[in-house]
Amino acid sequence: MEELIKTQTMSNNKQFKSFLMGFFVSVIILFSFFAGSIADRLFVIKPLDAITQKTRHSLLGSPTKSQDFSQTSLGQMMQSGLFDVADVAEKASESVITVSIKQQQRVIQPGSIFDPFGFFGFDSSEVQVEEVQQDIGSGFVVEGGLIVTNKHVVNNLTAEYLVIDKDDKEHQVTEIYRDPSLDLAILQVQDFSAPSLVLGNSDEARVGESVIAIGTALGQFRHTVTTGVISGVGRSITAGGGDQFESLENMLQTDAAINPGNSGGPLINSQGEVVGVNVATTTADNISFAIPINVVKVAIDNFNETGQFDRPMLGVRYSMISEQAALMNEVPQGAYVVEVVQGSSADRAGIKSGDIIVEFDGQKLGDEQDLAQMINQQKIGKTIQIRLWRNSEFLNLKATL
Question: Is there a domain that residue 267 lies in?
Fold first, then answer.
């Protein structure tokens, strides 16, 4: 009996101790909750946030904003993988310039309201000539210190042009080289130095890929940054300025906001590489275009070799035969030769009117492979293998551009 009473007493003691332990734990939890709430309200102290923030940093690394890119090149930033649109735009803007035109302009000065001749209907207004400067476009620096822009931005042969850098410093344009077949121009500038942008591979541009456009929006707002995606590839458009218009093939389409003031600025992909030169916009919203950078690279290489924009020429006027038209007429798909320029490379190679060029330099011509596009990617003096169809037979010829 005594052992039974002793056992029951020990059990009661254990239950009482468990009760006290649970009570004290509950008090501590309630105290922590109310103390934390009071600290948050009165002193804006958030201990849990600090703990979770430290944990997040340890798992994910420091956030992008804490990175110091002041001494980092755009290429190094891309390789690090720690960047966002603001980082790319900030670094790329060092290489983007504004093109400004300075020219003489006639300004009419109205006559005085006290002019007695005005009472009799005589116009005493004076025409004066003043020098006017205005921002008209954009451009960017490539390797060698050259500046790329659009030809229609600098199409006035008598005007004086300036480039304005990110720090709003003006620099005199000393030489302008205009491409005769593309809406491109290269500027040489006096006493100007800026990092060059990395040129990407526009052939790898994919629909839906994110892009950034930088330029002088509306000719008023320098270094405006807009974002979007590649909306389409291989587009054909007519672009230009003033009374000069050109048909441009194989263009990149984007929904990044581009207007006439952005013309000549870079279109940059998410790797920080230039994939196009912004050239034109339509009256419709969210439809803008850029010249593929691969075409620009060929033009720059030709310029570096010759000092001018000499372009290769085959010497034919042609019309592309679509796949559907080829099937209907039982002929191969390619470029139907309408006319051959006398004395040209095509003439010397033996190409004749009525021929269908089906392959150029080993590449088949088709709906997405235009003959002019292929020629523009070549260099002057190169000998090209040409396969054509004539009188139901295939012939292989050689032509030196």
Answer: yes
Q: Of 95, 138, 202, 263, which one is the catalytic site residue?
A: 263
CA angle 223-229-232, nearest 5°? 120
> CATH number of the domain that 292 lies in?
2.40.10.10
CA dist 297 and 79 (Å) reads 23
Rounded to the nearest 5°, which phi and psi values hold at 87? -65, -45
Q: What are phi and psi of 81, to 5 degrees?
A: 80, 0
Report CA 231 to chain centroid distance, whole Å. Answer: 13
183 as an active site residue: the answer is: yes
The model's pLDDT over 196-217, given as tens digits with 9 standing for 90+, comes to: 999 999 989 999 999 999 999 8
190 with 238: CB under 8 angstroms? no
Residue 227 has phi, psi (to 5 degrees) of -125, 160
pTM for this predicted structure: 0.62
Structural domains in the chain (count):
4
Please tell me the distance from the alpha carbon of residue 315 to that of residue 319, in angstroms, as a whole number: 13
User: Of 183, 223, 231, 370, which one is the catalytic site residue?
Assistant: 183
- Examine the residue annotation and report whether 152 is marked as an active-site residue of this protein: yes
CB atoms within 10 A of CB 389: 19
Q: What is the DSSP letter of 201?
A: -
Phi-psi region of 52 (alpha: psi -120 to 50; beta: other; left: phi over 0): alpha
Are both 231 and 274 inside the same structural domain?
Answer: yes
pLDDT computed for residue 386 by the predictor: 93
E runs forming strands in 25-92: none
Q: Give the pLDDT score at 58.
A: 35
Task: Please check whether residue 73 lies inside any domain of the structure.
Answer: no
223 is catalytic: no
β-sheet bridge partners, residue 293: none
pLDDT, tens digit (0-9, with 9 covering 90-100), for 81-105: 545 788 888 888 899 999 999 887 7
- Report which of 196, 6, 226, 162 is spatially closest to residue 92, judged by C-alpha positions: 196
